[in-house]
Amino acid sequence: MTMNDLPLHGIRVVDLSWIIAGPTSTRFLAGMGAEVIKVGSARRPDPSTGSPPFQAYNQSKSYCSLNISDPQGLELVKQLLAISDVVIENFAVGVIERLGLSYEVVRAQRPDIIMVSSSGTGHTGPDKDYVAYGSLLQHYTGWNSISGNPQGEPVAGGLWADPWVGMELAMVTAAALNNRALTGQGQYVDFSMAEALSAALPGAILDYQMNDRVPELMGNRDAFYAPHGVYHCAGPDRWVAIAVTNDEEWNALCHLIQRPDLGSDSRFAGLDGRRKHQDELDAAISKWTILYEDYEATRLLQEAGVPSGPSLDITRVFNEPQLRDSGYLKPLQMRDDELRDLPGLPWRFDGGDGPNLTEAPVLGQHNEYVYQELLGLSVDETNRLVEEQAIY
Amino acid sequence: MVAGLLPGVRVLDVGQGISAPYCAKILAHMGAEVIKVEPPEGDEARRIGPFPGDTPHPEKSGLFLALNVNKYGVSLDLASTDGAKALKTLVAGADIIIENPPPDTLEANGLGYETLRSINPRLIFTSITPFGNRGPYKDFKATDLVIHHMSGHAQGLLGAVEDPDSNPPIRAGGHQAELVGGMAAATATLMALYRKRMTGKGSRIDISSFEAMVNQHISGLASSAYGRPAPPRDLAKVQEAASAGNVGAIGGILPCKDGYVAVSPREDVQWERWLGIMGDPEWATDDRYTTRDARQRNSPSLWKLLSEWSSNYSKHEIARWGQEQRIPCFAVNTVLDLLKDEHLAQREFFVELSHSEAGTLKYPGAAYRFSHAQLPLAARPAPLLGEHNRSILENLA
User: How far apart are CA A315 and CA B89, in angstroms?
Assistant: First the structure.
């Protein structure tokens, strides 16, 4: 896709968000062609500033420095909102209003603007002021109560609430843009991170109502498919995940591990039979997997038609050839003179490679563009505002 | 107020299972008219529970019911001439078609992208597969379990363990990989729909659930790009790092009378207030715990002391005390806790729907409220198999 072909070409986004969820959402919009102007201040820097993740969260954005707590700074952000289509913020509930940028104020600058406000537990309700970090919030959402080993403690982490929410915020923004294109109507969106995660637990929520039970913890096992687990491969802490979803895959697996006797044993016919005898089957499969490296086991299993793959840590994920051949990880020349493979967007349009994202900016890098080109300030005026720490 | 954000948008959901139906459900929530096209034997999710009394019934699968609310339903045998013809007619009047084929079902029936585009040049064709349509794994078979492990998410779920070789990484419960794939598809599809509105262009969208899950690891990928090592899974190595001062903020799960509570009084001011909640215990003046740095170095022994205290109280009690003192603190909720939660109730998060076979149930709604549109979250329950064959298919002819 050329720049003009990108779906959000022509859309301008003011990004008041910080930390992870908000910046990852505007990254999707920027990658898809929107002009995203990140607004930040040295007074209260984005916590990820200076870290490698910042380089990924903020690709393809412009970055201006602006102290919104200063009355002149507030005036500048209002001028910017007047020429923008979307504004996204993820401050604690009440902060954006205290800064003087409630939806009423924002809408007065630009009547059809789409304002997306994301917080831990949403902007209404008795617990709206709860202090939330994504890693803790996921415990509230129910997710951690359905994950873990049988009779074990609830799991410590693993859900990555913030990037999940980031994608959903981009989705919501795209939905609102569609509506605005059709009707001319802007929106204020009240978004709850906790609800985004709880909404993705449909099975467990209905199971409770149908059967009066909280789902039991199953480790790697499944309520439906069997065998279903990870199996030790050659080498320390090396595992291959195998999920058998039907009789055909079961027979293929038995053939591969040279146990045709299991395949013809009527006790193991059908998912129900295999679920009842998982310990026995797991032991037989492990005797085969331990002979192979995890990638080699995967290759043999996939050739036989059995769903499988290695259990990877992030370093090995990063080194996956699949992610380069599919065009997801692409080398980017960075200002530290290094060529680094940074993530792209998790979708491809029209058989292409996906857009080329540009390097994350530094604070204030686009001040001249924003204040002089977009807002029409003179150089002298800009310098005065820098002096007075409004542009700061 | 307008019902939904996508009036007049017509979506065909020819997917099965989880990822594509979830994508289509999101569009239905947003107000699109979604027609679910099932094979004569029904979507495979109808065979996956939970079922009332654990008795399989094609109209009572909790998973199917939840993933297909607000859709119309028709059944079509796409391998038959009549079925293929009916689908083509539906495609001619659709904006979007979503599939998650076990390799090439539409294609195998002569209904691939090129054919459908010749019928409807402005069609948005969204395809979700485990690894997308390119790269060495494009033909690999995978499930939620496999993608969870391959994308690196299983490694961190348990936290550090004493003996990694006897305590393998585990996946999260639920169907996270397929849901994230579905959300990525909905996001890309809505962007394509916007482009179609502005330029008239159709799109072909290729989604890899693996990539969508890998993308959730954006922080870790960036760190890898800067040569940072993966966090260890071995407890001894983690403790070594902790005593060297190389771990992040303290935080974690404490046992309670009735479950667990998650808490992170990481900043000094939060720690002071947390001590207040615990009644300023004597051990707090011990040098091992007086600074943030010291607490992080000594977090194993510290966590034992906190656990002794927390075991005397309920999880909701501690969560409330913590939050009253502005300390990030949450009960480890079960789905029962969610269904009873006063905050979610006041926000009307759960949506009640009556289904002719499955009865009246509460379904999770949406995480978003729009100021100028009412989302049709309770427009209709999931369709019975072939429920709208008459009203939709007979009108085509």
Answer: 48
Q: Are residues B253 and B383 in the same domain?
A: no
Q: What's the confidence (pLDDT) of residue B194?
A: 98
Residues B298, B151 share a domain: no
Tell me the chain A residues in contact with residue B172 when contact means C-beta distances shorter than 8 Å: 143, 146-147, 155, 158-159
In a domain, B209, yes or no: yes
Contacts of residue A390, defined as CB under 8 A and 6 or more positions apart, other chains included, come to A66, A67, A70, A71, A72, A73, A76
Tell the residue number behind the tokens 């990822």, with chain if given: B19
Contact list, A147 vs chain B (CB under 8 Å): 157, 170-174
Distance from CA of B183 to the nearest CA of A (A): 7
Tokens 């002391």 locate to B305
Residue B92: CB atoms within 10 A of its CB come to: 12
Chain B interface disruption, residue of A135, A178, A256, A339, most B CBs within 10 A: A178
- For residues B304 and B373, state if they share a domain: no
- Tell me which residue range forms the domain holding B25: 2-215+348-396
Work out how many domains chain B is built from and give that number.
2
Residues A228-232+239-310, CATH architecture:
2-Layer Sandwich (3.30)
Sign of CA dihedral B283, B289, B295, B298: negative
Picking from B54-68, B184-198, B249-263, B298-312, which range would have the lowest pLDDT averaged per residue? B249-263
Mean pLDDT for A9-27 is 97
Question: Mean pLDDT, to the nearest integer, of A306-326?
Answer: 97
Kindly list the residues from chain B whose CB atom is less than 8 angstroms away from the CB atom of residue A185. 2, 372-373
Question: In this structure, which topology does domain A3-199+329-387 adopt according to CATH?
Answer: Rossmann fold (3.40.50)
Q: Give per-residue pLDDT as tens, B77-123.
A: 999 999 999 999 999 999 999 999 876 678 888 999 999 999 999 99
At residue B245 the predicted structure's pLDDT band, cuts being 50, 70 and 90, is low
